[in-house]
Amino acid sequence: MTITYYQMPKTRVTFGTTVTDGLISAVVFKEENKYWTAVLTFSNTPSIYPSPAYNGVSVLVEVQDGAVGGAWTTLFGGSVLFSKYSFGDSTKINFQCVGYGYALAMMNVAEEYGAQSRNPARDAIQGILTNASVGFIS
Predict the structure, then answer these.
(1) Which of 28-32, 37-41, 104-108 has the lowest average pLDDT?
(2) Phi-psi region of 129 (alpha: psi -120 to 50; beta: other; left: phi over 0)
(3) DSSP state, residue 78
(4) How distant, in Å, are the alpha carbons of 38, 52, 74, 80 from that of 56?
(5) For 6-120, where are the alpha helices, taking DSSP H only?
(6) C-alpha–C-alpha distance, residues 135 and 73, integer Å
(7) 111, 117, 122, 125: CA torsion to nearest 10
(8) Which residues partner with 28 through β-bridges?
(9) Partners of 39 in the beta sheet?
(10) Per-residue DSSP letters for 17-34?
């Protein structure tokens, strides 16, 4: 009988262009038909907030196979929405992060076009841009 031992995966979190250490936990919510979210808990020693981790900075969470030379796999990409210290002290800090689709979800759309919309006849870009009955797209 052969016993195979697997190594724990390594994690890497990048804020902007700075790779940081001190990750305690990461919870990534991968919801269907919605942007992904993540809650990252860090040890704030040495201090990572407000620099390099600040509200609005891009964040990338990756894992690597424990084997030497394993490839890095991206688990989450997005930006920091807001941050807060846990329990009022500065030793732990939580980051609420939103995925790349957040900006699209926050965009207000006044009219839908395409084969499965309430404007099914307008399925070409020229017809959409020249639709005088609804308005225009700016």
Answers:
(1) 104-108
(2) alpha
(3) E
(4) 14, 11, 19, 5
(5) 102-105
(6) 44
(7) 70
(8) 38
(9) 27, 96
(10) TEEE--EEEEEEE--TTS
What's 105's DSSP letter?
A: H
Do 61 and 75 contact (CB within 8 A), yes or no? yes
Token pair 């020693």 is at which residue? 45
Sheet strands (E) in the chain:
10-15, 18-20, 23-29, 37-43, 58-64, 72-85, 92-99
The 37-43 sheet, strands edge to edge: 18-20, 10-15, 58-64, 72-85, 92-99, 37-43, 23-29
- This prediction has a pTM of 0.68
Helix, strand or coil, per DSSP, at residue 88? helix
Q: Please name which of 46, 50, 43 lies closest in space to residue 15, comparing C-alpha atoms.
A: 50
Among 136, 127, 6, 135, residue whose Cα is nearest residue 65: 6
Measured CA to CA, the distance from residue 76 to residue 61 in angstroms comes to 5
Q: How confident is the model at residue 81 (pLDDT cuts 50, 70, 90)?
A: very high
Q: Which is more confidently placed, 40 or 125?
A: 40
